[in-house]
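re: ur question from the group chat, yeah i did fold both. here u go
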Amino acid sequence: MASTTLTDPQWADTTVLSGDLAAAIGELKAKRGGELQVHGSGALTRWLLQNELVDEINLVVCPWSSARARGYSRQRPGPSA
């Protein structure tokens, strides 16, 4: 768990990292089954890339549009004759 505020996680198999984060992440990756995942943190992903701690990236794109997005929230008339 990478967190700036959490100190005592309640989830099973969770480790809160502190101190030299690059070294701690390297140690976690070296352990058997040491796959680490990042969900939704661009800042953490950039930091991991800058510290050469990323081996593989699987990017999942989920299309989304706001109900307020122009042209998506209402039917548009077809082409005029």
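okk and heres the other one u asked abt
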Amino acid sequence: MAFTLRSQARWHDGSPITVEDVIWSFDTLKAKGSPNFASYYVDVLKAEKTGDRKVLFSFRGNVNRELPLIMSSLPILPSKWWAGKDFEKTSLEPALGSGAYKVDTVDIGRSITYRRVPDWWAKDLWMNRGRNNFETIRYDYYRDNNIVFEAFQGGRLDIRRENSGRNWKTRYDDVPAVKAGRIARVELAHETPRPCRASSSISGATCSRIAACARRSA
């Protein structure tokens, strides 16, 4: 299976994304990445350059029909940026990226904030139109689900997805913000087929829905 890189594809420092980056990423992730990468790519024999912007992946037989989709989601890493660095060593230095956002600030063990890249090379591609609308995105880390719930009640979080039918029915009734109308409980329907299991924590009537709580402005 062959992929052709877009000519406008760039890293955040303005340098082009190359076939060499793709091959280095595949080889490195398979050998040194998370164990799931080695499992994903076990039937991929090799990656090779077949043109200035074309890379060819050779598969072992045709048993795994999901391989083309798996390879299309291969994370691409900047080989030149990683040169001289230990890929297996933990570091707090933000790696060079190529996406719509890049790391802005990090509060170790507490949060990470991403800032939108104004001149992102792919912002005008058809599949990205109408997306990536937030200037910053912040992720807060919590070690306990009960603390997450308390943070949500206190207004520290904007939205919470509730996957426990028991909590959905009993835990929110006495929350002051719910009584005051600052928190709305909403069931968001989706169209993903899902069997209704007898052991499901969500009743058969709602097992094809995502139960979510959305915080409204005060």
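fwiw on the second one: The longest strand covers residues 44-51. Residues 196-212 have pLDDT under 50 and may be disordered. idk if thats what u expected
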